[in-house]
Write a structure and sequence with these properties.
186 residues, SH3 type barrels, two-stranded antiparallel ribbon, 11 strands, elongated
Length: 186
């Protein structure tokens, strides 16, 4: 199981004869391998599509719904960092991916990935670096919040997913992004 470069969830099951190969492939692909050692894990694995290991050593691991991915991820050892891919140290062109504390409505601290504070433009002309917009990976992939990192003179917008800070930045043209509704709240 793991996330692709676009932050999409992938998970599959492999037969007992492919266990060692699947574990090696997971390591090569930056994914996690988890043996179905309990009834609950076997039940979850039965709901996944079957994966395939290729002679190259890599594997085909199909998309799964985020809810299924999250259920399985709960069984990973605590040593795994969310998302599954190892978090790279922050550099000047990346936001830190550590945990931050913020006050909740009850006054108790919460922890979770840092979300960049962003401007919420109400007009296309007001989009600037730091603005929060919507972007998609493609048809039928859904729209998710992304922060504008840079705007090139050619009209290419460099974006970073708001909720998947370890996923590399990506580019879109203005016609491929959307504005949030002015009354949208998190």
């Amino acid at each position: 199981m793991g996330l692709d470069d676009g932050g999409k969830a992938h998970a599959s099951w492999f037969g007992e004869a492919e266990t060692d190969l699947a574990e090696k492939a997971a390591g090569m692909m930056g994914m996690a391998a988890l043996r179905a050692s309990t009834d609950e894990l076997r039940d979850l694995a039965g709901k996944l599509p079957q994966g395939r290991v290729f002679s190259s050593g890599k594997a085909f691991v199909p998309f799964v719904k985020a809810t299924m991915f999250d259920k399985i991820a709960e069984h990973l050892p605590r040593s795994y960092v969310w998302p599954i891919r190892p978090v790279k140290p922050a550099t000047n062109d990346r936001l830190p991916t550590g945990k931050t504390k913020k006050a909740s409505g009850t006054g108790a601290p919460e922890s979770g990935p840092r979300r960049p504070e962003a401007l919420r433009p109400t007009d296309w002309d007001k989009i600037e670096p730091g603005s929060l917009v919507l972007a998609t990976e493609g048809t039928y992939q859904g729209w998710f919040e992304a922060q504008v990192v840079k705007i090139s003179p050619e009209g290419v917008y460099t974006l970073r997913w708001r909720d998947w800070l370890d996923v590399p930045v990506f580019t879109r043209r203005l016609i491929h992004i959307a504005l949030l509704h002015p009354e949208h709240t998190d």
